[in-house]
């Protein structure tokens, strides 16, 4: 399987660095362990992997290559946000039962042998407590887990007020998964190899200051007042400045300043594959909750590979610079650098 990583890197126009090569070797070993266990139906499940490191170092790319090359029918790859949306919906049906968490995990995963969590991060203490129960159910079922993250396990739920609540889950992760750091010197999102395939997300534009002329040059007609619409999201109304086929146009303060959740963003991403978000301020001047919602929105749209046009009042580095910003702001900035800023 190690050859699969080398071939995929060549096809993408780069060579594996030392950190990626070490992670690829460990992933290849896990692949041999998982397929060998399937073949002989013997022994405990192999240790999973927790692959972490700075943004843009190839963590998700490595696990995607591994997933595609792994000849295992009972596998599933899911973004962390997506899994939790599904889990909460299923858990609600079983919540009156004593083993509701176990039943929800069993319903979601069935006979899944290998589960991939991409972008594993925990900031909400409520989610953190439930995640501990979910992971316990996964490991009790003998499911092997592979996760990617920008944080080491000990760095999850970093808020010192709540961190101690997650320490038992951190110990569970460290006992159940081998920790692999991918921290090479190159940020592959910023320094994209020439000739590599461009994502749909990366075809979006960062428009500053977003004059009507700039918008029209990007193929965007500014919305009129009579295009405003109320969209139902989870039983609540969210205001859009325009809805045009698969495109939705929002104002930053109306979308991120409202009590929208990541689950709401996922539901909207189910309906629209092209987005315009206008009125992006300097995040240091926005309240912390709005800035965090914006970071969550970028996560969702990037992982759904939806096209995003951002209309901002300041250059990207200034808009996402300053103090009191979301903990994941470096990941957000790395992703937004994929947008065309010409």
How does this model look, in words?
Keywords: ATP-binding, Cell cycle, Cell division, Nucleotide-binding. This is Cell division protein ZapE. It comes from Kitasatospora purpeofusca. By secondary structure, the chain is an alpha/beta fold. The chain folds into two domains: 2-181, Rossmann fold; 201-336, Rossmann fold. Helix content is 43%, strand content 17%. It is built from 13 helices and twelve strands. The strands form three sheets. It has a five-stranded parallel β-sheet with strand order 2-3-4-1-5. Helix 11 links the parallel strand 11 (274-280) and strand 12 (307-312). Helix 4 (80-94) packs across helix 5 (100-109). The protein is globular and about 65 Å long. The model has no long low-confidence stretch (mean pLDDT 91).
Write the CATH architecture name of the largest domain: 3-Layer(aba) Sandwich
Sketch the topology as an H/E string, one letter per element: HHEHEHHEHEHEEHEEEEHHEHEHH
What's the tally of helices?
13
Overall number of structural domains: 2
CATH superfamily of the largest domain: P-loop containing nucleotide triphosphate hydrolases
Largest sheet: 5 strands, parallel
Structural class: alpha/beta
What is the CATH first-level class name of the largest domain? Alpha Beta
Helix content: 40-55%
Quick one: overall form? globular
Number of strands: 12
Q: Would you tell me the overall average pLDDT?
A: 91
- Output the CATH topology of the largest domain: Rossmann fold
Distance between the termini: 40 Å
User: Which runs of at least 5 residues are low in confidence (pLDDT < 50)?
Assistant: none
Radius of gyration, rounded? 21 Å
- What is the multimeric organization of the chains shown? single chain
Strand arrangement in the largest pleated sheet:
2-3-4-1-5
How big a fraction of the residues is strand? 15-25%
């Amino acid at each position: 399987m190690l050859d699969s990583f080398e071939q995929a890197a060549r096809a993408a126009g780069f060579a594996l660095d030392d950190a990626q090569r070490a992670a690829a070797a460990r992933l290849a070993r896990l692949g041999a362990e998982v397929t060998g266990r399937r073949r002989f139906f013997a022994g405990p499940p192999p240790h999973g992997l927790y692959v972490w490191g700075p943004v843009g170092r190839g963590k998700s790319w490595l696990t995607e290559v591994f997933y595609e090359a792994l000849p295992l029918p009972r596998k599933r790859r899911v973004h962390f946000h997506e899994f939790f949306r599904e889990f909460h919906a299923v858990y609600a049906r079983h919540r009156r039962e004593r083993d509701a968490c176990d039943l929800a995990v069993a319903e979601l995963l069935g006979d899944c042998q290998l589960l991939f969590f991409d972008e594993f991060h925990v900031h909400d203490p409520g989610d953190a407590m439930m995640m501990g129960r979910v992971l316990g159910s996964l490991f009790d079922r003998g499911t092997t887990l592979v996760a990617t993250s920008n944080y080491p396990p000990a760095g999850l739920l970093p808020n010192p007020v709540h961190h101690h609540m997650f320490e038992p889950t951190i110990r569970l992760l460290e006992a159940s998964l081998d920790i692999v750091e991918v921290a090479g010197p190159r940020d592959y999102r910023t320094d994209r190899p020439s000739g590599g395939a461009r994502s749909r997300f990366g075809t979006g534009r960062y428009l500053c200051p977003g004059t009507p002329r700039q918008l029209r040059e990007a193929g965007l007609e500014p919305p009129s007042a009579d295009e405003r619409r109320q969209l139902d999201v989870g039983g609540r109304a969210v205001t859009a400045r325009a809805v045009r086929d698969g495109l939705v146009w929002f104002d930053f303060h109306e979308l991120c300043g409202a009590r929208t959740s990541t689950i709401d963003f996922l539901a909207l991403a189910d309906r629209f594959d092209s987005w315009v978000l206008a009125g992006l301020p300097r995040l240091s001047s926005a309240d912390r909750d709005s800035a965090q919602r914006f970071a969550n929105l970028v996560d969702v749209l990037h992982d759904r590979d939806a096209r995003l046009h951002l209309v901002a009042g300041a250059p990207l580095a200034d808009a996402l610079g300053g103090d009191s910003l979301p903990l994941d702001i470096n990941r957000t900035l790395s992703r937004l650098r994929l947008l065309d800023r010409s």
